[in-house]
Amino acid sequence: MRESNLEIEFKFNAKSITKRQFHSKIESVLFQQINPFLAISCDDYYVKSGVDGFLRHRKGGNTHELTLKLKRSENTIRKEVNIDLADNDDQNIVEFLILSGYRKKFSIFKEAWVYNLEDCDLSYYTLSDGRSYIEIEATKYNTEAEGVRIIEQWANLLGLASDSKESRSLFEIFSDEQDCNNTCDSCDCK
Questions:
Q1: Banded model confidence at residue 76, pLDDT cuts 50, 70, 90
Q2: What is the pTM of this model?
């Protein structure tokens, strides 16, 4: 039996592939036309002193949720618990987080084109700063190994180079950049 709230995904830097090229690759692999759905979100990230990790407050489209993630293996296998906040006021959620000792670290705005396939979700998303990423998330698997195999198979089918694989989450990418910007004037991360 599959473990609850387990998420298995790979993230790839999309520097060398456009959204249109990605779409064309998916259609050529599937031998059919497919329409993604567009999800636009604002993700507010909250941290708490003495706590390893973060909470994400996602707002956008039909989604309003609070997410807690715990990594197991790089950024590939992790526990992810999403709490639906649809019937809650945004300000009450923020106050709840602040009263719980969390502080807002930053926000990430993104547009995602999501393809829900039989065994995985494929996403191409662009951040407000213009960077784009591709995510492959296994959705139909019984074991961690099977989930990883599904992702690796799709990465190969789509021609995603292993050197473009990103081991960090968006939270880690933005945290690293923020820390670098706060500590040095000329870093590789700028």
A1: confident
A2: 0.89
- Mean of the per-residue pLDDT values of the chain: 91
- Residue in the block written with tokens 């599937």: 30
Distance CA 190, CA 156 (A): 31
Helix (H, G, I), strand (E, B) or coil at 34: coil
Residue 172's CB is within 10 A of a number of other CB atoms, namely 14
Is 40 within 8 Å of 60 (Cβ atoms)?
yes
Q: What is the mean pLDDT of residues 160-188?
A: 81
| pLDDT over 60 (residue 88) | yes
DSSP-assigned beta bridge partners for residue 41: 110
DSSP state of 32: S
pLDDT at 190: 46
* CB-based contacts of 82, cutoff 8 Å, min separation 6: 65, 66, 67
User: Shortest CA distance to 70 belongs to which of 56, 58, 87, 57?
Assistant: 56
Q: Give me the residue spans of the domains in the chain.
A: 6-183
**Structural Rg of the chain based on CA atoms:** 17
Q: How far apart are the first and last CA of the chain?
A: 45
CATH superfamily for 6-183 is: Hypothetical Protein Pfu-838710-001 (2.40.320.10)
